[in-house]
Design a protein that fits this description.
This protein has 159 residues and is mainly β. It has one helix and twelve strands; from the N terminus they run H-E-E-E-E-E-E-E-E-E-E-E-E. Mean pLDDT is 91; it is low at 14-18.
């Protein structure tokens, strides 16, 4: 019985750890993005061993896994980072051209919910720059846009 309890405890700790870091293979075969799904921290990991910070930890003390996820856009260099608890959004850009091209920009800085459960998801629209942000619990929807042209072209509006 003691051995079975030890195995179950070990399995649960490994499963929880496995959910913390998620790797996303980019269209550039030499690069992956590593997301800490608890904190929102995103790193570009290159095959040559170099790593570059794309987005700093947003919630460094969060202990719940799978709070954040990355969504690939049609632009091979751009991903959308989603806080699935609050509905906050960031545009994350990786690059092989240099660190000045690696960054993240806020799309939605406002909390759209205050409960700690995964409720937000996004769905693409016809335009590669626009998406719906959907609250699965309430059905509320927002339309948002990311852009490489500057902050004035990034926005979110309630539907």
């Amino acid at each position: 019985m003691k051995a079975l309890l030890t195995i179950i405890t070990l399995f649960l700790s490994v499963t929880t750890y496995a959910q913390t870091y998620k790797f996303y293979q980019t269209d550039n075969i030499n690069n992956q993005l590593r997301l800490n799904s608890k904190t929102g921290e995103v790193y570009q990991i290159q095959n040559d061993g170099q790593t570059f910070l794309v987005h700093p930890a947003t919630t460094p003390n969060n202990e719940k896994p799978n709070r954040y996820t990355l969504y690939k856009t049609q632009n091979m260099w751009t991903y959308i980072l989603i806080d699935k608890f609050l509905g906050k959004l960031w545009q994350c850009q990786y690059s092989v051209e240099g660190t000045e091209y690696i960054s993240s920009w806020v799309i939605n800085p406002y909390s759209l919910s205050y409960s700690e459960s995964n409720k937000f998801m996004i769905q693409p629209l016809t335009s590669m720059y626009q998406f719906y942000l959907i609250n699965d619990e309430t059905g509320d929807m927002w339309k948002f846009q990311w852009s490489t042209e500057g902050d004035e072209y990034r926005w979110i509006e309630k539907m």
